[in-house]
Design a protein that fits this description.
This protein is mostly helical and about 180 residues long. The protein has six helices and two strands; from the N terminus they run αββααααα. A hairpin with a 6-residue loop joins strand 1 and strand 2. Helix 2 runs antiparallel to helix 3, helix 2 crosses helix 6 and helix 4 packs antiparallel against helix 5.
């Protein structure tokens, strides 16, 4: 047995971050894949899912990096696995940005926490609507058709915000963040 081994807090911190990132990627993927409803809106349809719930928990409790990783990889993998590969690069960027910005707001904006978390969700909602609108313009070559996805995107993120915002304070305490 090697008795010269020393404890490294950096290694422990990196391991914890790796585990949390992997956990939230998996949770985001599973919630997107298995807790969803397809909407019959216009020809491109839409998908309402609860993948934004673990994404927001990751971002608001563990910060911008974990939020970005959970969103980009979790939902990007969903697109690849579900046969929507053309969407994967857009999802990676858009949902990664949602997680990053929501986490950044939660980290940097002082004030009443529920208000800050709500602001983070609203900004993520704007990123989602604008990002997917332009993604659909690129994929479909049409400026009107993407308007049909806005209600589904709005409902999806709003529902996740309604679920997550009241819970974040408790989840932060459980995670030792507050």
């Amino acid at each position: 047995m090697n008795t010269n081994t020393t404890y490294s807090p950096t290694a422990s911190t990196k391991t914890k971050a790796l585990v949390m990132n992997a956990l939230f990627i998996a949770l985001t993927l599973v919630a997107t894949m298995f807790i969803n409803v397809k909407l019959p809106i216009m020809s491109n349809g839409g998908l309402i899912h609860l993948g934004n719930v673990p994404l927001f928990i990751a971002a608001l409790v563990y910060g911008k990096k974990t939020g970005a990783i959970a969103g980009a990889f979790g939902m990007g993998l969903f697109d690849l696995i579900s046969g929507w590969g053309a969407w994967a690069p857009f999802t990676f960027i858009i949902v990664g940005a949602m997680g990053f910005v929501a986490g950044l707001i939660a980290e940097k904006v002082p004030g009443k926490r529920a208000l800050v978390f709500s602001l983070a969700v609203v900004v993520a909602l704007i990123i989602k609507i604008v990002g997917y609108y332009f993604a659909e313009v690129i994929l479909y070559g049409n400026w009107i058709q993407p308007l049909g996805s806005i209600p589904g995107n709005f409902l999806q993120v709003t529902l996740a915000g309604i679920i997550v915002v009241p819970l974040i304070g408790r989840l932060q305490k459980q995670a030792g963040q507050k």
